[in-house]
Design brief:
The chain contains eleven helices and twelve strands. It has 290 residues and is α/β, with parallel strands linked by helices. The protein has a single domain, classed as Rossmann fold, CATH 3.40.50. β5, α5 and β6 form a beta-alpha-beta unit. The radius of gyration is 19 Å and the shape is globular. 43% of the residues are buried.
Length: 290
């Protein structure tokens, strides 16, 4: 019976992948930072390995004997330098994964990660793909805009009927995907037999413009909702109010400008295209019950 190590198992994507694998009878090794985070997964039948992303020795031990590894890195929005924190994690992960080069590796990446500049926060995923490009069997899952990114806007939209949008213009659709579909895709890839370098470009069943997101909110909240552009001059203060540092706010602004200019897009020619099944309305309904 194969065993798969899951980094980020306490998040939406890693958690979904782990649940899918366990349900299909595979063994799952949960890579967690503390015993408190381990308990729920031990109760589900997962093996436990305690490791942090800056500890190559613990990570190497955690990956020992597994058939596949799913890994991602946090956003580190609260860090003074999110890219420096990401670099530390990539160094440790690289050392651990290169000690187990026979193991398949699946990375959580992003739309636009093939771009070498001008993508803001997505550059950390470009750096991840570059760091692991030499592994014998590695798949990058380049996901679209997470539908769950709208969770923090639910209260405001419910109260005001206005969806502030940093994505613009309001009628331009972008790839979006539910985290459940990402996790399911990750689990599917881990179970497949493959070698070499693969790129999976993953989005939902359709693309959504901000006007479409407002319409989905309207359906779920049962009230009229209108999308309105939040001007770039207002972004920085909004990011700081959400707990981001100045450097992280700058990275997010550059990323949004990349989306809005069309610079951040799928590579397509080098990738396998996969579509998830979950519509935005279903995600919003789960996030914002009546």
């Amino acid at each position: 019976m194969p065993t798969y190590a899951i980094v980020g198992i306490t998040g939406h994507v890693g958690g979904t992948a782990a649940e899918r694998l366990l349900a299909d009878g595979a063994r799952v090794r949960a890579i967690v930072r503390s015993e408190a985070k381990a308990r729920p997964w031990r109760d589900r039948g997962a093996e436990i390995a305690l490791a942090t992303l800056d500890d190559p020795v613990a990570l190497r031990a955690a990956f020992d004997g597994v058939d596949g590894v799913f890994t991602m890195t946090p956003t580190w929005f609260e860090a003074e330098d999110m890219f420096a924190e990401n670099a530390k994690a990539l160094t440790a992960l690289s050392q651990a994964l290169n000690a187990h080069r026979q193991t398949k590796v699946v990375l959580l990446s992003s739309i636009g990660a093939h771009r070498p500049h001008g993508t803001g926060a997505i550059m950390k995923l470009h750096n991840m793909e570059s760091a692991f490009a030499g592994l014998p069997s590695v798949t990058s899952v380049r996901a679209g805009w997470f539908m769950e990114n709208f969770a923090g806007m639910i209260s405001h939209v419910r109260e005001t009927g206005v969806l502030p949008s940093m994505l613009a213009p309001l009628d331009r659709a972008v790839p979006m995907v539910a985290t459940a579909d990402i996790g399911t895709t990750v689990a599917d890839i881990l179970r497949q037999h493959w070698s070499g370098r693969r790129v999976i470009e993953l989005e939902g069943p359709r693309r959504y413009a901000p006007h479409d997101v407002a319409a989905a909110f309207s359906t779920v909240l049962q009230r009229p909702v209108e999308a309105q552009v939040l001007l770039p001059a207002e972004w920085h203060s909004a990011f700081l109010s959400w707990g981001l540092t100045h450097r992280s706010a700058q990275a997010m602004a550059e990323m949004l400008n990349g989306f809005n200019s069309g610079w951040i897009a799928y590579e397509e020619s080098e990738a396998e295209i996969v579509q998830g099944a979950t519509p935005l309305e279903a995600v919003l309904a789960k996030l914002a019950p009546p």
